[in-house]
Every structure is written in structure tokens, then in C-alpha cells.
Write a structure and sequence with these properties.
about 160 residues; mainly alpha
Length: about 160
Amino acid sequence: MEHLMRSLNVFWRSERLLAGYQLKQATQRIQLNALAALVAVFGLAMLSIAAFFAIVPYWGHALAALTVGGADLLLAMVLILYARSLGPTPEVEMVREVRNMAVSDIEEEIALVEAEIVAMKDGIKNFMHYPVDMLLPGAIGPLLSAVLKGLGSTKKKNQ
């Protein structure tokens, strides 16, 4: 039972660590996506301004605004791709392995308890159906010693 409690404790801790990591990773992704969205908004604004300037006089201020807007959009794409590429660190993999070991230990303990319960059930069933057969092996030793003592005491009386 102590092994089961230890396994449950390890499982609980590893699940808590994994949940914390997943929350941290989700927070980072949200922050990076929000930053990418902000940069994309600025890029879109610059592209709009660039399109406006592109119509008015050919290639003066418009080309500069178009270049800045394109660079902003490129930066937004890079940030989004980086946010999507974030994966679990080696520490998280280690915690997952420990959690999986704890789960397998818990399953083994439950299987042992289940086997003990089945054996106890079978023992009770056998006792209910064949009580003499169940009690006889435990009673043979005391009965034999009592018979031997009785025989020994009758021999002493006869001598």
C-alpha cells in the first residue's frame, strides 16, 4: 500500500508540473501571437499608406512605406512560425517519463490488490462450500498431538 501511495504522489506531482509547463507554453504562444498581430496591424497600416503614396507621385515616399510594411509583415510571419515551433523541453520529457512510470506502478499495485481480492473471494467460497476440507489441514496437527499425548498418558498408567 505504501508503494501505491508513493506512486500516486509521484503521479500527482508530475501531472502538476506538466500542467504548469503547458500553461507557461500557452502563455508564451499567446504573447508571441499577440505581438505578431500587433506587428501585422502596423504592417497593414504601412501597406495602406504605401498604396496611397504609390498612387500619388510615382516611387517617392510610397516605395519606402511599402518596404517598411513588407518588412513588418515578414517579421509577423517569423514570430508566428516561431510560436508554432515551440516544443517541449527535455525537462518536460523527463517529467512525462516519471509520470508514466508512476502510472505503471499504480496499475501494478491495483492488479496485485485485485489478485488478492480474487484469492480471498475464492478462499471464502471454498470455505462456504467445503468447511471441513478447509479446517482439516489446520486441525490435523493439534489432533495428532492430542492423540499422542493421550496414548502416552495411557501407557504410563498401565506400567
